[in-house]
C-alpha cells in the first residue's frame, strides 16, 4: 500500500473506532461553534432586521462598516479579542484567555457581522414587498420586525447555516485566543494545522474528513431549507 493509502487507511481507522482524542476535539469544536453561532444570531438577526426595515440618518455609513466587517481578516479579530482578554486588557480580570469561552467570543465577533449583513438584505427585500401593506394596517415597529423575521425564517436559517460553516472553518482567531492547548482548547482546524506540521498526518486527515463531511452536510441543509422555502411559497 502506498504512503498516502496507508495514511488514509489509518485516518479512517481513527474514525471507525471512535478514537477518544478525535471525539474530544470534534465535540469541543461543535460546542464552541454552535454556542458562538447561537449568540451571533441573537445579536445579528435583530440588527439586520432593524437595518433592513428602517431608514435613519447615518444608515449608509453603518452599512458600509457592517459590510467591511464581513471581510475582516480572522487574525485581526483574534488580535482584538486577545487585547481585550489579556491580563492588561479591560476584560483580563475575568481570566478568559486560552479557554473555550475566549474562542466563542472570537467566533461571535467574526460571525455576527456576516449574519447581520446577510439578514439585513433578506429582511430589506421582504420589507420592500410588504411595507405599504403593513403601514396601511398600522403595524407597530416591534410587530413589523417580528413578522418579517418569521416570514423570512427559511432564508434566515440559511444565513445561520452559512455563519456556522464560516465559524467551523476558522483557524486564525481561535488559535490566537485559545492557544491550541491539548485537552483544553484544541479544535479541529487548529489540530489539523498542528498535527500536519508535526507529521502526524493520520489524525490531521481524519479531522479533515470530518470537516469535509460537515461541510457537505451544511450545504445539503442549505439546499434543503431553500427547497422547503420554495414549496412553502407555492403552497
Write structural notes for this entry.
By secondary structure, the protein is an all-alpha fold. The protein has one domain (3-229): MetI-like fold. 80% of the residues lie in helices and 0% in strands. It is globular, with a radius of gyration of 21 Å. The mean pLDDT is 87. Residues 26-222 form the ABC transmembrane type-1 domain. Keywords: Membrane, Transmembrane, Transmembrane helix, Transport. It comes from Seohaeicola saemankumensis.
Structure summary:
The chain is built from 10 helices and no strands. It has helices at 3-16, 20-53, 59-70, 74-85, 100-137, 141-151, 153-168, 172-178, 188-198, 201-234. It is globular and about 70 Å long.
**Mind describing the biggest β-sheet?**
none
Treating each run of at least 4 consecutive H or I residues as one helix, how many helices?
A: 10
- At CATH's second level, what is the architecture? Orthogonal Bundle
Please give the share of residues in helix.
over 70%
Strand content: under 5%
| Count of spatially separate domains | 1
- Distance linking N and C termini: 55 Å
Amino acid at each position: 500500500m502506498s504512503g498516502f493509502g496507508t495514511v488514509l487507511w489509518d485516518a479512517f481507522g481513527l474514525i471507525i473506532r471512535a478514537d477518544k482524542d478525535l471525539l474530544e476535539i470534534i465535540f469541543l469544536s461543535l460546542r464552541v461553534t454552535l454556542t458562538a453561532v447561537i449568540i451571533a444570531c441573537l445579536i445579528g438577526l435583530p440588527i439586520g432586521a432593524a437595518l433592513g426595515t428602517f431608514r435613519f440618518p447615518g444608515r449608509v455609513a453603518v452599512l458600509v462598516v457592517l459590510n467591511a466587517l464581513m471581510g475582516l481578516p480572522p487574525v485581526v479579530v483574534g488580535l482584538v479579542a486577545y487585547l481585550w482578554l489579556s491580563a492588561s486588557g479591560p476584560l483580563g480580570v475575568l481570566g478568559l484567555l486560552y479557554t473555550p469561552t475566549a474562542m466563542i467570543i472570537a467566533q461571535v465577533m467574526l460571525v455576527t457581522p456576516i449574519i447581520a449583513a446577510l439578514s439585513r438584505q433578506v429582511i430589506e427585500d421582504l420589507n420592500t414587498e410588504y411595507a405599504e401593506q403593513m403601514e396601511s394596517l398600522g403595524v407597530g415597529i416591534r410587530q413589523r420586525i417580528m413578522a418579517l423575521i418569521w416570514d423570512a425564517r427559511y432564508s434566515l436559517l440559511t444565513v445561520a447555516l452559512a455563519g456556522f460553516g464560516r465559524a467551523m472553518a476558522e483557524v486564525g482567531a481561535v488559535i490566537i485566543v485559545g492557544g491550541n492547548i491539548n485537552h483544553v482548547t484544541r479544535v479541529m482546524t487548529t489540530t489539523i494545522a498542528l498535527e500536519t506540521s508535526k507529521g502526524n498526518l493520520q489524525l490531521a486527515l481524519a479531522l479533515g474528513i470530518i470537516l469535509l463531511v460537515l461541510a457537505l452536510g451544511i450545504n445539503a441543509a442549505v439546499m434543503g431549507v431553500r427547497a422547503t422555502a420554495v414549496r412553502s411559497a407555492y403552497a
